[in-house]
Specification:
This protein is α/β, with parallel strands linked by helices. It is built from nine helices and eight strands. Helix 2 packs across helix 3.
């Protein structure tokens, strides 16, 4: 599938499913160390089989997207969100659903707040828009990078695993140090129906943080699953049923 140069200077590779479908597309954003297909290909294919046009970009620095190396400057979620919005501009997508997993979920929340008229619905899983103190020790335990798998190192051309992990942890801790606001300040701006999905055993994203976010959203809902962080693999049937109902309700 193609790559496209966007106005922010990045070049994003992307994949599409069911491109001939009518109606607004669903733009799906992957999580950390993912790509347009890694993490979420089965989810994307499921949505396509249900009649949606699915578009999934790979974020800058991951997979075939540029520039490399993938890095995590302070405030990197805003940079990635600006990339996604510029990607939509480049494809002339004026309206769509946006859905994201983990880091991609944070981008979906931020995008829905920055450009509320653009999105028919927003949904995220493993993301809450707010990083409180409970997340600090969990993030800090990831600093050594030993959890990054060999195939991920190769796929993303990671030259320095420790630097990669340390940058991400430093950026996350910086959000915590500054009060935890990732996109919480944008929550009141979100106009479309919003679905937050969390695993009850997700140590990075306590439900109380999601509730804090939703308290400021006009049309928001939290659904909890008997799962960890990757709900889409821990509870695939329940996850797909919930996401599909949300998309169909917003489309109607």
């Amino acid at each position: 599938m193609p790559s496209i140069v966007i106005s922010t200077g990045a070049t994003l590779h992307y994949e599409e499913w069911n491109a001939q479908a009518e109606g607004v597309p669903v733009v799906v954003i992957h999580g950390m160390l993912g790509t347009a297909t890694v993490n979420l290909e089965e989810t994307n294919q499921f949505l396509a089989n249900e009649g949606f046009h699915v578009i999934a970009p790979t974020l800058r620095g991951y997979g075939k997207s540029l520039p490399k190396p993938r890095d995590f400057p302070i405030g990197f979620y805003r940079r990635d969100t600006d990339d996604v919005l510029a990607f939509l501009d480049a494809l002339n997508i004026t309206q769509c659903h946006i859905a994201g997993y983990s880091d991609g979920g944070e981008i979906a929340l931020m995008g829905a707040g920055l450009q509320p008229k653009r999105f028919v619905s927003a949904s995220s899983w493993g993301a809450v828009g707010f990083f409180g103190e409970a997340m600090r020790p969990v993030a800090q335990r990831l600093v050594n990078g030993e959890w990054i798998k060999p195939f991920e190192i190769e796929m993303h051309d990671i030259k320095n695993v420790m630097q990669f992990a340390t940058q991400w942890v430093r950026a996350i801790v910086n959000y915590i140090d500054k009060g935890g606001d990732v996109s919480l300040h944008l929550a009141p701006m979100i106009e479309c129906p919003l679905l937050l999905m969390l695993g009850e055993r997700d140590t990075l994203n306590p439900a109380e943080y999601a509730e804090r976010f939703l308290a400021q959203v006009k049309h928001g809902k939290l659904t909890l699953f008997d799962a960890g962080h990757p709900i889409h693999t821990d509870q695939p049937e329940a996850f797909r049923k919930t996401l599909l109902a949300h998309l169909k309700s917003a489309s109607a």
